[in-house]
Design brief:
It is a single chain. The protein has six helices and ten strands. It is α+β, with helices and mostly antiparallel strands. It has a single domain (2-215), classed as 3-Layer(aba) Sandwich (Aminopeptidase). It has an eight-stranded mixed sheet, with helices on both faces. It has a two-stranded antiparallel sheet with strand order 9-10. A hairpin with a 2-residue loop joins strand 1 (2-6) and strand 2 (9-14). The protein is globular and about 50 Å long.
Length: 217
């Protein structure tokens, strides 16, 4: 069933890898994300069957123009936007913002804090302008960064994950988040997304520099 419809597009949720739109999602997924962030197609096929996952596809006619993959953590007040991308030929038309809006309003996600893993723009690199642009895209949509959190993404492929920052969205964000809540979010990410133990030592390393109440900037 469609989540939303508009002029020339439909956003709908996929529930199985056997739906024809899943192949279109995979094409954009592998084209848009760096190797270190990519899970194998077989992992995505298992994820889409899990009820806590929301695989949304943005359709233009019969073609997949974009997608988002989010998970609502069990026993938590948070969800994670794990992946989002628009097909290369469809970019710079406002579809990314549209897809984000549909994601934050879909199902149980709408009642939660939405965490967003974003490539970090802090280190000097040849593509820093692109990294700044991507982070600003989310900032303009209302996301804020957890100040001082150096996010460590567990490895999902043979390649190392790139440096990432963690942003947060909610329609009414507080000025700061308690460290104990951030810990719970990180434990949920590690255990429910990456199948790592919730007491993984990397979580402690991420939390150590943070004050008891951490600003959103």
């Amino acid at each position: 069933m469609p989540c939303s419809q508009g002029l020339g597009f439909t956003v709908r949720r996929l529930l199985s890898s056997f739906e024809p739109e899943f192949e279109g999602l995979l094409r954009i997924y592998f084209e848009a994300h760096p190797e270190g962030e990519l899970k194998p197609a077989s992992a995505l096929a298992r994820m889409v069957e899990r009820p806590e996952y929301f695989f949304l596809v943005l359709m233009r006619g019969a073609a997949v123009a974009g997608f988002s993959i989010s998970i609502c953590f069990r026993g938590s007040d948070a969800a994670l936007l794990e992946y989002m991308a628009v097909a290369a030929e469809q970019r710079n038309q406002g579809l990314g913002g549209l897809l984000f809006k549909e994601t934050i309003e879909c199902g149980a996600i709408a009642q939660r804090f939405l965490l967003v893993e974003v490539d970090s723009d802090k280190a000097a690199s040849g593509n820093r302008a692109d990294l700044v642009r991507r982070k600003n895209f989310y900032r303009k949509l209302g996301c804020r960064e957890i100040e001082g959190l150096v996010y460590i993404m567990p490895r999902v492929s043979s390649a190392l994950p790139p440096p990432l920052d963690m942003l947060v969205y909610k329609s009414a964000l507080p000025q700061a988040i308690d460290k104990i809540r951030i810990r719970a979010w990180l434990e949920d990410c590690y255990s429910q997304v990456y199948q790592a133990p919730p007491d993984d030592r990397r979580i402690g390393l991420m939390l150590e520099p943070l004050p008891g109440s951490t600003r959103l900037i």
